[in-house]
Amino acid sequence: MNLCVGIDIGNAKTELAFESNGQIQMVRQPSVISYLPKTPEANDLPLEQVMENLFDNLVVNISSPSIRRNGDYIVGKKAMQHDGIKTNMTLSLGGKSTHDVPIITSLSLVAATAIKDHYENKEELPESLSIDLKMATAIPSSEFSKQNAKTLEDRFKTKHNITLYVGDYQVLVSIKVNECKVTEEGRTAMLAFFNSDDKILEGFNKIYGENKAPSDFMKARTLHADIGDGTSEFVVIEGANPVQGLSKGKRLGVGHASDVAISLLRDHLNISDKFTRQQLQDWLEKDNERGQLARDVMKEATFVQSQSILEEIQLSFQELASSDVDYILVHGGGSITFKEDIHEDLMDFAESNHFKVVWIPEKYATTMNSRGTYYLAKMMFS
C-alpha cells in the first residue's frame, strides 16, 4: 500500500491528513502515550464495534530504531484515560525533533488508518500490511534548523513495525518511510489556505464588505500568526512563499495557559499530579460543576496569555515584517481559545496601521498545518 500524508505533530494533538476518494480526510488523537510493562489483555467486544472506535482505543506494539524503548504503548485518548504514567511533550523544553512522542503517535495513526481503510474496503481484517509512506511534517520555528529538520527526517526515514491490538486480533503493519520532508511550522499554512473553499473568507468578507476568494491573495504580502499549544509561529509570506529569515517562534499558546489553569484548579480540587493538559481540555467540555470550574480557571489563565500573544503579533508586524503587510492571518487551535481576548484589540491595531485581519474560522483553523503539510508532501513526492 502506498500512502502520502501530512502530519501535524502538535503539543496537544497529532493530526494526520491524507486523500481518500478525492477528498482530504483528517484523523487526530491527543499527543499522549503511556508505556505498558506487559502486553494488555484483549477485550471481547465484537470486531465491528472495535473498528468503529479504533482511533480512540489505540494500543500498539512498536519496534523501531528511532525510539528509545520498543514495546507496548497506549496512544492518544485511551492513554489519557489510563492510570499509568503518561508522557506528552514538555512545553518548556520543546525538542520535537528528538522526542519519541511524535514518532509513536504519528506511526500509530498511519497504521490505524491503513487497517481501517483495508477493513472498510475489503470487509475483513488483514493479518498484516506493508506501507510505503511519503510524508511531510513541521517543527516550531523556535526549534527549527537544518540539522534539527534532518534529525527528524532521518528518524522517520527507516522501517518501523507496528502491531496494532484490534480486539482479539493483532495486525502487523510494516511502515517504510521512503520520503520525508520536515519544514517550519507556519510555512505550510498558505498551501492550506489556497486549497480551501471560499467559505474560509466568509467572516472576513462580511467584516470588510468584500467578496474575496483565497486566490485573490496570490500576490499579497501576509504575516501569519499560527497560535498553537506549546508554541506560536510568526511567518512573513509573499504570495505562497515564506520570506527567508522572516520567521520566529515563541513559547506561547494554549498549553501554557492550560498549565496555569491546572495550577489554579489545584487550589480548588485535590487533583492528581498526573493530570495532563489534554485531560483539562476534556474537562472544559463537561456539562457539570467540574466543567464549569475548569472553564472559570481557564478563562482567567487565557486572558494573561492572550496579552502576551497580542503583543508578540504587534511586535512581529513592526520588527519581523517592518510594518509592511497587506494582511495578518490568524489561525491554529489557539486562535479559537484566545479570540475573545485578542480579536477586538488586533482589529483596532490593524485599522491604525492600515492592514486587514483574516481570522481563520474555527472549521479551518486547527487543520491548517496538517492540510498544509499534506499539500507539501503531494507537491514534492506525488
UniProtKB/TrEMBL annotation:
Q: Which InterPro entries match?
A: ALP_N (IPR040607), ATPase_NBD (IPR043129)
Instruction: Name the CDD domains for this protein.
Output: ASKHA_NBD_ParM_Alp7A-like
What domain of life is recorded for the organism?
Answer: Bacteria
Actin-like protein N-terminal domain residues are 6-186
Q: Name one Pfam family in it.
A: ALP_N
Name of the protein: Actin-like protein N-terminal domain-containing protein
Q: Which organism is it from?
A: Pontibacillus litoralis JSM 072002
